[in-house]
Design brief:
By secondary structure, the chain is mainly alpha-helical.
């Protein structure tokens, strides 16, 4: 059977208008990527891939037919292209779109040029990531300590983002004030000498049992209280918890 080509011509537009729109979209994408990168909180554990791909949707693995369906209203969709990756398509589009006139119109569209630029950007990211990984550079600390010749192999745009991320990771993080636990000493310098004393049984009819409490004392007051002979079923403690005091 002959392969059916479902390509339909795209609407023609003025070249200057298309070029202006493409440049505007490229500038907008660059500004958006910079904004997202600046909003990302980098740490010493952030890897190189997360820095370069922050805020981007990976389009490199999208299939050709999916792209044509979503972005170009299904123009150019054929069954044999369902497993073709966009990277392969943009490398040699004439191999997959045989109608030259339709391909020319498709290549003049803003959506085509925008996707081509996105795929090319991902290829560049992957190449730089691969170069750095081959040199043992996988995260921001590795990038900061990398030799000059290793950094020189990375494209300037990617180098800029990695430098900015490394600088962000080196900034001290804001820490919250330590939580003060009631009944615990902040340090030995403000500790007070205390001791445990026996409490009376209370109402005989209620049989509350013997309790114990904690009282402020002096250096020589230890050991002068009676030993507790009965464990209380209900312990009565003061604000400073007994187990935290140097009795």
């Amino acid at each position: 059977m002959k392969e059916k080509d479902t390509i339909t011509p795209l609407a023609r537009g003025t070249p200057n208008g298309v070029l202006t729109q493409v440049l505007t979209e490229a500038r907008r994408e660059a500004e958006e990527r910079l904004r997202r990168t600046q909003e990302m909180k980098f740490t010493i554990s952030t890897n190189i891939e997360d820095v370069l791909f922050k805020g981007r949707v990976r389009v490199n693995e999208m299939r050709l037919n999916d792209f044509l369906t979503r972005e170009l209203d299904g123009r150019g969709v054929v069954d044999t292209n369902r497993d073709v990756l966009l990277e392969e398509f943009f490398r040699d589009p004439t191999r997959y779109i045989r109608n030259k006139g339709a391909l020319n119109e498709m290549q003049a569209s803003c959506r085509y040029l925008s996707m081509k630029r996105a795929v090319k950007g991902e290829v560049i990211f992957d190449e730089d990531i691969r170069r750095l990984c081959d040199k043992g550079v996988n995260n921001l600390p590795g990038w900061s300590l990398a030799a000059a010749d290793v950094k020189a192999a990375v494209r300037n745009s990617n180098k800029h983002f990695l430098d900015a991320a490394a600088e962000e990771a080196r900034k001290p993080t804001t820490t919250s004030a330590p939580e003060k636990l009631e009944g615990c000493y902040e340090s030995v310098h403000n500790a007070r000498r205390s001791h445990v004393v026996e409490l009376p049984d209370g109402d005989e009819r209620k049989k509350t049992g013997t309790g114990m409490g904690c009282m402020r004392g002096s250096q020589n007051s230890h050991g002068r209280t009676r030993k507790l002979t009965t464990l209380s079923k209900r312990m009565t403690l003061c604000s400073n918890v007994v187990q935290h005091l140097p009795c």
